[in-house]
Amino acid sequence: MQFDFVTVPRIIFGPGRIREVGPQARQNARRALVVTGRNAQRAEPLLASLRENGVDFAVFAVSGEPDIATVRDGVAFAKKERCDVVIGFGGGSALDAGKATAAMLTNDGDLLDYLEIIGRGQTLGKPSAPFVAIPTTAGTGSEVTRNAVLASPEHRAKVSLRSPLMLPRVALIDPELTCDLPPALTATTGLDALTQVIEPYVCLRANPMVDGLCLEGIRRAAWALRQAVSNGRDTTARENMAVVSLFGGMALANAGLGAVHGLAGPIGGMFDAPHGAVCAALLPHVVAANLRALRERDARSFALDRYCKIARIVTANPHATPDALVEWLRALIAGFGIGGLGNHGVKPADFGPLAEKAAKASSMKANPVVLTPEELTGILASAL
After folding, report:
1. Collapsing DSSP states into helix, strand and coil, what is residue 216?
2. Which helix (H) or strand (E) holds 58?
3. Hey, which end of the chain has fewer CB within 10 Å, N or C?
């Protein structure tokens, strides 16, 4: 057995710990670039901590999911403001924008020199500027990953800037920052987090460290996700979902994902569709397709046993079969009122191009079974 496991040098977790960001930044920063989501006012607890500790800063707000132009603008702004540390505060979009901006602050050339698929795919030569990641949703786990997902409207694609040199210096997770999220956003981001502890556990590159993170994350999400959606002020549920998101980020960074994310990437590139909602629409149908394909072509696969273990955890039934997982997921998503892919503009005519792009996606390479084009289009049809 051989595996590597790499993660952020320091993880700071707990309610109220946003107050510690100022002392952390003061150690390294002359001037910080604070990358926020659309509503920069939500970052006031962070900005207050910086002020109290004498850290100068400039704020760069990201209006939506980041694209290539967003990062170019962020880098230009950071250089103009003479910022030497980047702090990302927000959901996955703000964190990915901040992470990519920090990388390009220290590396020569243009962003396209380093992007996979649509760019030249060169390797980053220098470590990123120090980056502190502070998530305000329990979803992507971007605070502990070494890539940033960026949209290219020109190519109708989402691609990654990826390098071990992009790991944040510090991940600060304060679950209290998620308590004001509305139920719908809590549900979709939480389902992304759940997906990211299921897919690495059944993927081809799973390892014992990732297994432990995933199983613990699944156990917590099985009860905490519903509670966080129904009562956003339940601090215990919020803390547990923050743990699920953190563990999912660590797991995917060290093992991989699967067909949910393999399909979600192309969908997000071609349509204005929130990532979490897309993952939610796909998840039960991908699990069902994987189960059929494994039973038909690889009945002795370890993944079948793992799907069975997940089913028994989430249903609290020691005799549950993997099919019970599919039904549990369908009921969970229906209970949250999350619609299908058709709500985001996906049509049957799009299935072929989406399946073709998904088959080439990096996430698809770790799926426990190779899905045929017909199986991929079948998933899309079921998720419509």
Report:
1. helix
2. strand 56-61
3. N
pLDDT tens, 138-194? 999 999 999 999 988 888 888 899 999 999 999 999 999 999 999 999 999 999 999
Q: Is the CB of residue 66 less than 8 Å from the CB of residue 85?
A: no
β-strand 31-36 against 85-90: which pairing, if any? parallel
Instruction: Tell me which of 156, 178, 200 is where a domain ends.
Output: 178
Where does the pLDDT of residue 118 fall: very low under 50, low under 70, confident under 90, or very high at 90 and above?
A: confident
Helix (H, G, I), strand (E, B) or coil at 34: strand
Answer whether residue 332 shows pLDDT above 80.
yes
Query: Mean pLDDT over residues 77-85, rounded?
Result: 96
d(CA 275, CA 282) in angstroms, rounded, equals 11
Q: Do you know the residue count of the chain?
A: 384
Taking alpha carbons only, the member of 109, 132, 131 closest to residue 121 is 109
Q: Classify residue 42 by burial, with Cβ atoms within 10 Å: 0-12, 13-18, 19+.
A: middle
- Mean pLDDT across the chain, nearest whole number? 95
How many structural domains comprise the chain? 2
Taking the C-alpha atoms of residue 245 and residue 235, their distance in angstroms, rounded to an integer, is 15
- What are the Cα distances from residue 372, in Å, to 20, 141, 293, 326, 379? 49, 29, 9, 20, 11
Q: Among residues 160, 178, 196, which one ends one of the domains?
A: 178
Q: Name 343's Cβ contacts closer than 8 Å, sequence gap at least 6.
A: 277
| Mean pLDDT along residues 360-376 | 96
Q: Which neighbouring-strand residues pair with 31?
A: 56
Does 72 reside within a domain?
yes
**pTM to 2 decimal places:** 0.96
Task: State whether 222 and 296 are in the same domain.
Answer: yes
| DSSP annotation of 119 | S
Q: What is the per-residue pLDDT for 156?
A: 85
How would residue 351 be classed by pLDDT, with cut points 50, 70 and 90?
very high
Q: How far apart are CA 213 and CA 207, in angstroms?
A: 10
Q: Is 343 part of any domain?
A: yes
Three-class SS state of 306: helix
Q: Is 202 among the domain residues?
A: yes
In terms of residue numbers, what domain contains 220? 183-382
Same domain, 174 and 204: no
Tell me the two tokens of residue 163: 């390098």
The CATH number for 231's domain is 1.20.1090.10
